[in-house]
Amino acid sequence: MPVPAGSSSALEFTLPEPLAAIATCPGDPGYEAVRHTYTRPGSPAAVLRVRNERDIGAALAFARQEHVPLTVRSGGHGISGRSTNDGGLVIDLSLLASVTVLDAESGLVRVGAGARWGDVAAALAPHGLAVSSGDTGDVGVGGLATAGGIGLMSRRYGLTVDHMRAAELVLADGSPVRTDDLHDPDLFWAVRGAGANFGVATAFEFHASSVEGVCVDVSLYDASDTAAALTRWGEAVEASPREVTSFLTLVTGPGGRPVAQAMTVYAGTDLEAADRAVRNLRSAGPLLHNRLSATSYHRLVPAGHQPQRAQQPLSVVRSGLLHRLDTAVTEAIASVAEAAGIVQLRSVGGEVNDMPAAAMAYAHRSQNFSLMAATVPALANELDQRWEALTPHVDGLYLSFETRTGIRQLRDAFPGPVLPRLIALKAHYDPEHRFDNNFALPTGPA
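Structure (tokenized):
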């Protein structure tokens, strides 16, 4: 089957029949729905909706033989936009979306890498189970589960990767593997934080937590004194019990007024206890609106597949992890906000920091906040200049919230001995660096 190249590539190739049978190509019905991600346009020559490990192995072999660019897509929701390309192949995992409760009593569940977290939450809810998994139900399981998973219940239940018990992958040579603490433990260590570099994940086993429900407090503040509001919010978060996880977003309100919205989740169903636990967070700034309600976790991250769009305007993203939000830090963040379309702080700490730093490739276990700032390409230089004032205070980054891919970002994402260990494992599991589209590990010492 001849496959024309994407609009920005001169590459052309012919798919063998087994791959042609699962391919969506330019001109095919449905191509427009699968060519892009949520943040980046793409013109892949073929999107392969793989059905099993055999399909993945065939796609990997063909891409290697024909020197075709290769991208893996779980949900396509990633801020980096790296799950599409121009003129190459996209391995689309959306058909590998089963959710199975293996043992309701212990909370052991098996989840396909192509499932969406909202679907996972809905499937686990009848069993009183949940896995903390980001803030949007439309996010794909594979991307988040191999990067970290800073979610709306992180301070109570930790990161998504902290609950992973096993992973199933197809390696670069096409061989399927199952890895856990007893089988290929080095690979299992790497998958939890750097998994996109080591294979195509097909499924995971997680230990889901027993979650009866949550209380959600939504507060809107006047953030005209942005630095002061951020400092007060940060102090309130750190003083809160672990049941409290809060995400604060800075945006420009009507008339250009800085506005902050905090969505705070209390892991539990007692509204009075939740009210006491989050009360201090409401004083971060002049309160414009507040609402506290009880709900289920699956309603908090509802299922639903949004249509993929050609491009979001805020496609330049910076990430940093912070220990404290003192005045020097919040003044720098306030400056960053002037060049950013959106700034978001996510609270971590709590249960996240109970995990030993050496337990997995995601090693950031002392910070209390994750910072993300996004802007349009025209303001990228200004954002970077303002971001430099934060550099002395930043300790690491969350790679899924970073669009730069240089060695500096890798060192920040994988600190100390983590990056050299990943490089050594990469040489063993993917010596030809087939899985470098997401973030490329160096071929030698970093």
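The longest helix spans residues 53-66. The two ends are 42 Å apart (CA to CA).
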